[in-house]
Structure formats: C-alpha cells, structure tokens
C-alpha cells in the first residue's frame, strides 16, 4: 500500500493521520515523474495529490482514501457504527472541505499586498468555517464521540493550515474564542496515536513554507535587478 504526495498538503496529511490512528503505516513518497506525468495521470486523471495505490486499486480523493484505510487496515474503527454517528463524522469533514479549505487555499496563494477586499472576503469565509466547526464539533476533546474518528484525522491538518495562512494575513489565532475547537485541538496534538504523525506533518509544513519563502525572496531579488 503506497500513498503518493507530500505531508505539506493537508489532504495528504489527513490520510497519514488516518493510518496512524489505525496503528498502521503506509509507504509515503512523491511520485518520481510528477503528478502531471502521463503515468500518474493514467492512474489519477485529476493530476492531484493524494493517490493511494493498493495492488490493483488506485484511489484519488482524500476522504475516499481515508475510508478505504479505515476499512482495510487493522486497528480500531474510525467510523461510528450507527448511521447518525457516521453522518456527523462526514458532516465535519464536509464542513472542513467546503467552508475552510477553499478560503484557506485562496489565502495561501495571495500575497499580503494583494486586493484587500478579496483577502478580507476570504478571511470572513474562513471565519464562518471556524464558526460552523465550533457548532458541530464535540465538546470533550474529540471531534465526535469518545474515541478518534476520521473527523479528527481530517480536521487537524485543515485547521492547522487555515490558522497558518490566516496568520500570514494578520488574522488572530482562530482557535481563540472557540472553546470546543481549542479543547479538541489540544486533544489531537496530545493523543499518543497521532502525536508522532502530527510532528512529521509539522516538519513537512515548515520545510515547505521555508522553501516557498526562499523562492519568493529569490524571485524578488531577480526582479529588482
């Protein structure tokens, strides 16, 4: 079982956390020829990360991958057994993807001196995403119920990414003022099943951000000549 992608991507990272929550490992690597190569596109015509390859099965889309990992890897179940619980876990994932990841991605591509109105609109949209999560997330340090679920694995990288890019544009830490989210965040980063994997993700994100900053500085220096 091989997972293609970088842990700097919150979508790859959630799959990594799902495997960690199961107490299992998957092989992780960047696709040698790149995600736009003919060989990669033959498996995943979307040309995006992540991609899970397990024998003859090639799966794109992180939410699908996470559910596949939960169903095929040994370890504790990461989805509740009842329909209502399953729906709530999927709802939290849906909120993160629809109302948080979109504006966060927009802000990650924007420079601080880009159109102020567009940046303000994206910040407001991300604020709404945090508000929706605060409403629906569990209040006991877990996203739902009393044990880890796929919602925890999905939300942690998405929330982390959103907090980082919002800070880039001068917004305060969005966990402030959201007590249930703050309690949940602490529960995630201190969870023994996730702690090491979260540390690996943090290292990848820091390395990526450093590389992007160096590239931007180099480009600015070249343009100034």
Give the gist of this structure:
This protein is of the alpha+beta class and 225 residues long. The chain contains 8 helices and 4 strands, in the order βαβαββαααααα.
The H-and-E topology, N to C, reads as EHEHEEHHHHHH
Biggest sheet details: 4 strands, mixed
The domain count comes to 2
Task: Classify the secondary structure makeup into a structural class.
Answer: alpha+beta
Overall helicity: 55-70%
Mean pLDDT: 93
CATH architecture of the largest domain: Up-down Bundle
Characterize the overall form: globular
Number of helices: 8
Strand content: 5-15%
Low-confidence stretches: none
Q: How far do the termini sit from each other?
A: 49 Å
| Backbone CA Rg | 18 Å
Strand order of the largest sheet: 2-1-3-4
What is the name of the CATH topology of the largest domain?
Glutathione S-transferase Yfyf (Class Pi), Chain A, domain 2
Total strands: the figure is: 4
CATH class of the largest domain: Mainly Alpha
Please tell me about this protein's structure.
With 225 residues, this protein is α+β, with helices and mostly antiparallel strands. It folds into two domains: 2-72, Glutaredoxin; 83-212, Glutathione S-transferase Yfyf (Class Pi), Chain A, domain 2 (Up-down Bundle), CATH 1.20.1050.10. Helices cover 61% and strands 6% of the residues. The chain has helices at 10-21, 38-43, 62-72, 83-109, 116-136, 150-168, 179-189, 195-224; strands spanning 2-4, 27-29, 51-54, 57-60. Strands 2-1-3-4 form a four-stranded mixed sheet, covered by helices on one side. Helix 1 (10-21) runs antiparallel to helix 6 (150-168). The longest helix has 30 residues, at 195-224. The model has no long low-confidence stretch (mean pLDDT 93).
